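Input set for joint prediction.
Command: fold jointly, output C-alpha cells.
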Amino acid sequence: MKYLHQLKGEGARAVPLAGHVGFDSMPDQLVNKSVNHGFCFNILCVGETGLGKSTLMDTLFNTKFEGEPTQHNQPGVQLKSNTYELQESNVRLKLTVVNTVGFGDQINKEDSYKSIVEFIDTQFEAYLQEELKIKRTLHSYHDTRIHACLYFIAPTGHSLKSLDLVTMKKLDSKVNIIPIIAKSDAISKSELTKFKIKITSELVSNGVQIYQFPTDDETVAEINSTMNGHLPFAVVGSTEEVKIGNKMVKARQYPWGTVQVENENHCDFVKLREMLIRVNMEDLREQTHTRHYELYRRCKLEEMGFKDTDPDCKPFSLQETYEAKRNEFMGDLQKKEEEMRQMFVQRVKEKEAELKEAEKELHEKFDRLKKLHQDEKKKLEDKKKSLDDELNGFKQKKTAAELLQSQAQQAGGSTTLKRDKERKN
Amino acid sequence: MPCTQSQGQRNLEGYVGFANLPNQVYRKSVKRGFEFTLMVVGESGLGKSTLINSLFLTDLYSKDYPGPSLRIKKTVQVEQSKVLVKEGGVQLTLTIVDTPGFGDAVDNSNCWQPVINYIDSKCEDFLNAESRVNRRLMPDNRVHCCLYFIAPSGHGLKPLDIEFMKRLHDKVNVIPLIAKADTLTPEECQLFKKQIMKEIQEHKIQIYEFPDIEDDEDSKLIRKIKERMPLAVVGSNVVIEVNGKKVRGRQYPWGVAEVENGEHCDFTVLRNMLIRTHMQDLKDVTNNVHYENYRSRKLAAVTCNGGVDTSKTKNQMTRSPLAQMEEERREHVMKMKKMETEMEQVFEMKVKEKKQKLKDSEAELERRHEQMKKNLEAQYKELEEKKRHHEEEKSNWEAQQRILEQQKLDASKTMEKNKKKGKIF
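C-alpha cells >
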C-alpha cells in the first residue's frame, strides 16, 4: 500500500460558486465560540505612585476596582494583580489589572524596571510551560500574559524622566506600550502640544518602540492612523460625577472650572478608551501572542540549546530535536559521573602513594635503628668478651698464685713444723 | 512576588465598550481567511465526488481537473485538491482529500492504513511547525472532518465499515453518511439508519457528535437532526427544472429526486451542519482533542522512553519534556551528591584504617626497639656490675696478695734475724 500527495495546481486555485454555500457564516461561528468561551484581557499600569493609575482604571471600566491608595515608603517595586469578571451585554471579560506599587519611590531606581520585566517574563514562562507539556489544556488555560502596558508619564510639561526612558526601553520588546500623560489637567493646551512633541521625539531618538494602532485593516486603518498621531494620550481620570447642564458626567471640579473626563476638548480619555477597548483590544491580544510571546519563546528555546536545523542545515523534526537534546543531556550526565569517579580514583592513587611513602620511611627509620642496635650489641659483646678474657686471666693468675702459696705454705709449714718440733725437743 | 486576587463579578456603571470585542474578532478573522480540510472515504461509485460538488456548489472535479473516480486505481491512494472559494467577503481555502481505491480491491486488509498515515502525517507536520524555534504562521492542513460513505445495502454495516470507523474514530471527526440514498425508500432508510446506529454503539465507535448550541431554537433543531443520524444523502451535478424552479437533482422516469429537498434526503441537513453551523466546531475538536491526543502520544514516546513505569509516566505527562529533563537532571545531581558523599566516606574510612595500621606498626616497632634497648642497657648494667665486682675482687685479692707478700717478706726478714741471732736450734 502506498499513499502519495498530488497537489492539483500550485497551492489553491480559485473556483467560482454556483450558489450560496453558506461558509460565509464562519466568522459568526468563530465569534459565537469566542463569546461562549469568554474573553480575557490583562493590563499593566506602570507609573509613579500618585499618578492616578487606579482612578484611571476605575474610570475606563466604569467601576470601582480595588482598595486603598499606596504609601510612598515601599522598599522596592512590587506588582499587585487583581482579576475581575465583567460582563457587558453577552460578552464576558476576565480583566486583570496589574499595578506597579512603589515605582519611582526609591532613592536608587536602577533596579526598578527589573521586577516589572520579571513579572512579564513569568507570565510568558507559565504559558510556555503549559504549551510544552505533554498533556496540555491550552484552550482552557487562563492567559495571564500582559496584553497592554499603560505607561503613566508625570505631567511635568518638560520631558520624559530618565527612569521613564530606561523602563520603557526595557519593556518595549516584551509588551505593547501605550504611553499616557497622567493628570493632564495640570497642563495647559499649548504646553501639552509641546510636551507631546518632546516626548515623541525623545522616544524616537532613544529607539523606544511603542505600540502602534494597526493600519492594515481598511475598516479601522483611518481612525487608527489618526489616533497614532495623538499619542501619547493626555488623560484625566475621575469617578466623581458633576452635573453639567442636565446630565451627570464624570469630572473634576476646580474653582476655575470643571474638567470633563469624556469631553474630547478637555483631554484624550475618550480616545484612549476608544483605542484600547473598543477598537484594538483584540489586536493587542494578538500582538502579545504572535510577537512578544514568540520572541520570548524563541530566546528561551535558543538559550536551552534548541535549534531548528542540524549542523548540516537540514530541518529537525520534533522527535529528532528532543532525542538529540535528551542524548546530549544524558551524555552530559554520564560525563559528569565519569569525571567524578576518575577524580576519586586519582585521589585514592595519590593517597595510597603517600601512605606507601610514609610506610617506607617508617621501615627505613627502623632499619637504621636496628642497625644502630646491632652495632651497640656488637660493642657490648666485645666488651663482654674482653671482660671475660680478663676474668679468665685473673682467675689463672689467682689459681697460679694460690698454687704457689699453697706450695710455699706446705714448704713453710714443714719448716715451721720442724722448728716447732725442734723447739719441743 | 506579585499577589493575585480574583474579585469576582463586577457590575459596570455605564457602557465601557468591550462588548465590541466580538466585532473585532469578526473583523480579524475575515481578514485572515479560513481553511478547512475535508476527507471523503468510501468505495468507488458511491458518489463521493458528486456530493462534494453538490455541497460546495462548484465543479471541484471538472474536465481540467478530473476526479479520481475516472481513473482506475490498483492501490489505495490519498489525494488532495486545494481550492479557494469566496463568499460574502469571506475567503475559504478548502482542501478535499480523496481516497480512491479504498475498499475496491479483493483483499482490503489494511486499506485504511494509507488514510491513517495521511492523517498522522498532517498532524506531524503541524506538530513540527508548532515546535520550531522560529515559528511562522502555521497553515492548518490537518484533516478536520472525514465523511465516511456507507453503501445503501439496506442491511447493516459491512465489516470494512466497522473496521475503518473503529480505527479512525480517535484520530479524526468521523461523520458516516448513507450514500446514494435515492435507492432506499423512506421506511427502508429508517430501518437502515437504526441498524447502523445500533451497530455503531455496539462497537463503541465514537462518531462526531454535533454539540448543542446555546440557542434554544437551534438546540431543538439539533435534537431533531441527531435523530436522523446517520444522514442519508444524494448528490448531483445536474440542474433540472422542477415546477419552474431550477434545482439540483437526479432525473428518473418516475420523477426527480431533489438533492436539497428535506423530504427526499438529508443533504440539506448535512450541508447546514457541516458548513453553516459546525465547521468551526469540527476544527476545534480536531485541534483540541484529536491533535492533542496525537501530540501527547508522540511526545510521550520520545521523552518517556516508552513509559515502562506507568506511575512515573503519569507524573511526566503533566510536565513539558523540558521540565522533565530538568527534573531528571536534578535527580541525577542528587544521586551524584549522594554517590560523592558515599565515596568520600569510604575513602576517609580506608585512609583512617591505613593510617591507624601505620601507627600501630610504628608503635610496635617503637616498642620492640625500646625493648631491645632496655635489654641492651640491662646487659650493659650487668656487665658493669660484673666488671666492678671483678675489679673489687681483683683489688681485694691484690691487696691480700700484697699483705701476704709483706708477711712473707716480714717472715723471711724475721727468720733472717733469728738466724743471725742463732735462735734457730
